[in-house]
């Protein structure tokens, strides 16, 4: 079943804000200059990158976008480690010249190329790239949006430079049922479901699992983010909604995305998970399972976890493997 691209969603969703799973590519030359493209839509500058194709993982998307927008291949291209690699939140709202509104969520990749590589650049004929140029981090041109400013601030911080100020954005819409609203328009076809999951342990170092009402299988607290939420905001909200618990701090451990994490619900809806796993610390509150959503809760030691077939898909299986891998022998 083919996934739904962001262009297809626009046809049924109109200009209203969409959540776009996207990748930004930060390339630097031997002197530390960064490669920027002048965009065809607004004439301003930004890092190469764009929205993922349905089912695509972030590194594959980064290589594809770089090739399309510059004609270049970067052998050492890699995803930035968390938290620098993450991009999400209300400040990443963008209004395109054509009226489309978007919230960018996803990852950043980085790599290096010699300055001379630009001599061989051949952007495709889509018109997305008007010009390519290397820029010193302290001599940047007018930038297209806050996603680019935040990405370049990662590099500026490493170079000891102050952050670029972000442009003001409208307030994020109230939390609703974004994914459910999209479902009414596109049916069961695969949709990107950016979100977050949370590892919660008790004083005996047992992991909290929930038996989910929609699947009947065990999972960890978590879910999909709403437009304007950050991954961490989503993790905090879902943790409280599903369990009544709050976390003092949430440590991002790993991003899970790509074809391995496509999941089909019992009723037939398909999602491509784009999920950040967090470790919760400083837990407070009384464990109160969400009525209807959570059928049962349990605390499990590393040797007591349910079998894989009792877990809610590969995402949760791999979440638990990350937790088990971090346990002391």
From TrEMBL:
InterPro entries: Nudix_hydrolase (IPR020476), NUDIX_hydrolase-like_dom_sf (IPR015797), NUDIX_hydrolase_CS (IPR020084), NUDIX_hydrolase_dom (IPR000086). GO terms for molecular function: hydrolase activity. The keyword Translocase does not apply. SUPFAM superfamilies: Nudix (SSF55811). Its cofactor is Mg(2+). Pfam families: NUDIX. Keywords: Hydrolase. The keyword Disulfide bond does not apply. Residues 17-156, 190-322 form the Nudix hydrolase domain. Belongs to the Nudix hydrolase family. This is NUDIX domain-containing protein. It comes from Deinococcus radiopugnans ATCC 19172.
